[in-house]
Design brief:
heterodimer; A: alpha+beta; Protein Transport Mog1p, Chain A; 2 domains; seven-stranded antiparallel beta sheet; about 35% helix; B: about 300 residues; alpha/beta; Rossmann fold; 8 strands; about 30% helix; globular
Amino acid sequence: MMSCIKRAIYKGIDMKILACFVTMVWIFTVAEIVEGEQKGKMNPEISLPAEAAGWTWDGKETKYNSKTLFDYIDGAAELYLAYGFQGLRVRKFEKPNQPPITVELYEMASSEDAYGLFSFERQDEAVGIGQGSEFGGGLLRFWKGKYFVSIYADGGGVEAESAILTMGRATADLIQGIGTEPEFVDLIPGKDLGLVDRSVRYLKSHILLNQRFFIAHENIFNLSRRTEAVLAEYTREKQKTHLLLIRYLSVKDARDAYQSFMGAYLPDAGGKDLLKTEDQKWTMARQRGEVVIVVFGAPTASDAEALFKTTEEKLLRARWRENKE
Amino acid sequence: MEEKIMTRRDFLGVAAGTAMAATLGAGILGEAKAEPTARVVLIRNAEVVGSDGQVRGEILQSMLDEAIKSLLGTKDSAEAWQNLIKSSDIVGIKSNSWSRLPTPKELEAAIKSRLLDVGVSEKDMAIDDRGVLHNPVFLKATALINVRPLRTHHWSGVGTCLKNYIQFVPDPSSYHDEGCSPLGKIWTYPIVKGKTRLNILSALTPQFYGRGASFFDTRYVWPYKGLIVGTDPVAVDAIGAHLLQAKRIAFFGEDRALDVPPIHIMVADKTYRLGISDLSRIELIKLGWADELLI
């Protein structure tokens, strides 16, 4: 449905019709979420493995909903709620003389949300499980469809790590169907401009954005569940630059957010969209239709311009493709 | 007048050396070199944790006494405790019960023992974590002792003394924005304001690296066998965060990023004025076992 909305925006469908459509979609989505929470049930077709590599399930499964998630996460449940958390199932597996293994299966509102949750903390090498995965420090994280899965042991060891991967593959196989990645992520320029591996984050709230790259205490970009933001890191001669793209539901929303950002972050830019900040690096911000593009910490003004131009070209190509369809 | 929004640029303008500056890449300073404005004691003992993981209570007690004596500059530990706590005080010992790495019971017992020595009535003291808002001793406490393990934390970067007071508010999730940067605000509320006499980070077996909310892996816990003690919670936390960072560099060969940088430590200093986060302004007194000290 989100893809339809995006296409409608690209194609310039009458805004009143679009607004009605978006409202209907929103009501329908909220109704779905509320119904899911009231039932407190997970998708019934997903069954978790009961055994893998000699580790056997202890027979207990704990379930959490959006109200009880805080009990399990010890305070950090906002991360999951921001990505449309629907439910969590936790199982523990045991094997004599080996550390216990925990499997966490998170059901999210959409595959884009599952991808976003995965991207938020991605930092290790992929291991080919699900639609996107990483394994490092004894922790396996992957996403598939609208599910995000986390598997880890209480201690190290070759056998436990092997079992975690086996458990991960078995779990991924039991999740039927695949989901789509957010199309918006494709607008990020690649390695030719110094994109850092695994640095792309798909974000749904300003709290999450600030967790990865602090910008301001207040929500000066007006981010919400109805906006899409992508953050990526670039390096050039050991200097870090960050690129932030945000897509709003309307051009007006984007304009308002852009002006909010300029007023709070670059009030001394003197009407320009580029400024050398206190760290002697450059920040650039521009609005293009319903998208706001910001470059933080570029070593030179021309570096900021180059990153912006490449992003803008990708945005224009995406719009052209959408119009052509 | 409209309140100014705090942005990244405000931190870019702050002098290097603060915990926040370190998270922004400026690098953390190693030793005190300017006029000290906060004192923190780091004490270690190679025997306090056995090879079986058991904590030796009598050694821990002597470490705590020695640290308090040195912190307050008294001739003996009894005088130091009397300077901290009066017999008429009602004392809440704010502990931490996270199941994977709780405050050691031996450390709670060591504190309680000294409170009894000072003359605090047993009915006027309590040890609690998640129940503090419903604990009658905490509700009428005149003094607090803040004690918890040193570890990384999924949402605040590090789990240290400032973070330990989140149970004093009914809505902890309201303090999770921006790496828990508003945590210092809790310390301004009447239930705790001005009551904290001592902050203790148990660095017996700190957790120096973690991923995700409930992650715990024994490979990233090491027997440092120390206590970090001070009256300034921000300074204690800054030293704790520095130690974890030093351990990550030693272990991984780089400062492998935490889930979130510990912004709240600097915000507690700069915004809430709770103490000193600038390592160059902290006098760190190191006592005891010096092997692999790291800081």
